[in-house]
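Minutes, project check-in
Item: structure for the 233-residue chain
Input as provided by the requester:
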Amino acid sequence: MSTAPLHLYIGSKNLSSWSLRPWLAMSHAGVPFEEHVIPYELPDWVDRVAQHSPTRKVPVLRHGDLVVWESLAICEHVAEAFPEARLWPEGREARAVARAVSCEMHAGFADLRRELPMDIARRYPRPDVSAGAARDVARVLEIFRDCRARFGQGGPFLFGAFSIADAMFAPVVTRLLSYDVEIDEVARVYAVVITSLPAMARWSSAAAEEVERNPHIRAPAGSSYTTAAAARP
């Protein structure tokens, strides 16, 4: 495995949920990397990202000559490169379920993403959502309850200790809070756990500073951020 430094290129901390996922996994685990923020408000944002990412989207990781351009793949690469970080559960069954829910988060929940886009620094009145988004929320809460009940005895996270699964669901936790979504006690406790992480607090503080500097910041076309008209955050 390359001993070259890791460089993580990300977008807006207030809006880019896919950037948050590997950043949080790496930051919480103490994996050393250099952060490169490419602000969405730059007029040449897509061109700047294209210098680093073959998909012209964020996040993207550079590790020596290796380029990894997708959030879950970045997390998997880091887990292999830094096994001491223990980014997947140690138990075989727990690890399988952690990968399953992480992939489900990666590939699903389109209505939730579209109707409740990540906006960490702002708070909104509880919106009326579609039946599809309501089902997505219900499924998220079901995942939280199931993982905590089956695998959470060793700590406060979905699988006891922090794992990639927590990084994958952290942006959803911020959505539940930003839009005052009705949640159960398991989700409330888990939301406190996630938002209280020092790394998450640093990210949220940077997100608030972004909004203060530019309250009208919006993701450009072609980014990985979801607006009401786009399907992916």
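Outcome recorded: The chain has nine helices and four strands.
No further action items on this chain.
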